[in-house]
């Protein structure tokens, strides 16, 4: 690592540039030294989590101790949550759809949707569903549903599928197996498409917690009764960490996304984050600097701003990860702390024309976290299409990626020039491996920050408050 320019770079070329987050006017060396003991303890706690799955004070929804096992997922080994056999089964599943299933509809919300959308966007881009089957190499079209209870879109999706598909697969993803948003839209679409038989051949696959007995989920029971094939949301893996499990990988398999490369990226990041040397451990460094930026400088909003359309969904995935993991009323001893950074989705350059005014001149309460893609697979040169228009002629000859990066750099410089905290994750290119690195870094980072702030990063008790009110309200509606 080059301490002068404040960048930590992994062997793959992935880097974290924290030059505008650390040093004069930002988080200082003295700030870091002051919490050295806590950083050390956080590192030990994460080492312990990796080895045993234990996280001090973490309880499941029903109040019993629960393991935290997401850090196993990058390692495909016998006896682990992802085993050679389970990965082979996923790949076979993906192959079995090619040239046979026209469209897959993936139902899910929160952790059962956001990561899947990231994998889809990065691999397929915006126009996958308008491509021919040949262009998709026989893989099906893929639509998402259940991530809202929107009547209009749900019915438009049904009409679209009826118009363009004969062989349809519904994949219902829900860890708890009974989430209102997912199950209500699934039932509407299932019923409507079933009625379209024999024009539509319908298959259903369920992804849920496969516990049995008293813990059996409603979806598991239903899938058993209906004979639907199943994949699992593994025990000890919360929804927001499940993109590395069968939850995310089932979508990956449907579109021919490189599962091995993605997990290899996550693994490379995990290996890099095993060192106790904070300056070489990107997840710990990210957690420490952001924890201190909030605690000592009031920067308790994090604007996550990739410079790439197809990485916008990473920002949306990160919203759930950050908000549910760190937004906590109490610390682990029950003391009220009202902790957490508010996540904000932004995209460069789009939001430079919308949010940047607030980032630059508003309250000094934000960190802007950029994501930069260094090399683009397709990168046109701006042509000199109108030589007589001098202002347009001036930008001719630049590659679009050069214009994009110049805009990002200008934004970063303007912000830091006014003492506004920002940082950048740099992906050498937008591919499955570097995506695995980035998502895993963020997941491990919130685990570290939970330790630093002494909050349980693996529960989400706050979402129960509205759920307690919702049940009776739904009952009332039926009367
Ligand atoms: O996968 P499911 O059980 O359907 O849950 C979907 C989502 O529901 C809730 O809102 C939780 O707060 C989220 O953490 C979860 O990802």
From TrEMBL:
Keywords: Cytoplasm, Gluconeogenesis, Glycolysis, Isomerase. GO terms for biological process: gluconeogenesis; glucose 6-phosphate metabolic process; glycolytic process. Its EC number is 5.3.1.9. Gene3D superfamilies: Glucose-6-phosphate isomerase like protein, domain 1. Signal peptide: none annotated. The active site is at residues 324, 353, 467. It is an enzyme of class 5 (isomerase). PANTHER family: GLUCOSE-6-PHOSPHATE ISOMERASE. Belongs to the GPI family. This is Glucose-6-phosphate isomerase. The gene is pgi.
